[in-house]
């Protein structure tokens, strides 16, 4: 199974493609979509959606996983991320991909073993689990790969327990 992981952000949206086969996870590709702060919001969101569709066309994932928004103490800082996340969800839906959504804590727990892991620990475990010879950079790409790994791990658990596998499915128009 090929999984696309996404770490949404207005300035930087990380993406990562992993392949899971017979319990083994390999990184196929990763990158980061960057948008210019000087561009209008609609242009930036269109850029994110268009580039993600290009990633889907190139790597043909079977499913996708996206990080949900953590508001923390500053809701205002989460608004641009929410916009980028919306653009990503629309793009994935239009590509008819099933989408799993995971909190940052779920991702860290599934990849590192603790929901309190820092970026360095996440990058190290992504490198180890996907058998890369280096930590993936930028951090946004490492986080996207971690999201995809989380999807694989939690999907296995849900399949074994009969739990709900996906939270939503794209429409494919």
Q: Gist?
A:
The protein is 47% helix and 23% strand. It contains five helices and six strands; from the N terminus they run βββαβαβαααβ.
Features:
173 residues; six-stranded mixed beta sheet; Nucleotidyltransferase, domain 5; alpha/beta
Structural commentary:
Helices cover about 45% and strands about 25% of the residues. It is of the alpha/beta class and about 170 residues long. The chain has one domain (about 1-165): 2-Layer Sandwich (Nucleotidyltransferase, domain 5). Helix 1 crosses helix 2 (about 75-95), helix 3 crosses helix 5 and helix 4 crosses helix 5 (about 140-160). Residues about 165-170 have low confidence and may be disordered. It is found in: Cytoplasm. One of its GO terms (biological process) is DNA recombination. GO terms for molecular function: crossover junction DNA endonuclease activity; DNA binding; magnesium ion binding. This is Crossover junction endodeoxyribonuclease RuvC. Keywords: Cytoplasm, DNA damage, DNA recombination, DNA repair, DNA-binding, Endonuclease, Hydrolase, Magnesium, Metal-binding, Nuclease.
Q: In CATH's first tier, which class applies?
A: Alpha Beta
Tell me about the largest β-sheet: 6 strands, mixed
The first-to-last residue Cα distance is 23 Å
* Structural class by SSE content: alpha/beta
3D shape: globular
Ordered list of secondary-structure elements with their pairings:
Elements: E1 2-7, E2 12-21, E3 24-34, H1 41-59, E4 63-67, H2 75-94, E5 98-102, H3 104-111, H4 119-130, H5 139-161, E6 168-169
Parallel strand pairs: 1-4, 4-5
Antiparallel strand pairs: 1-2, 2-3, 5-6
Helix pairs in contact: 1-2, 3-5, 4-5
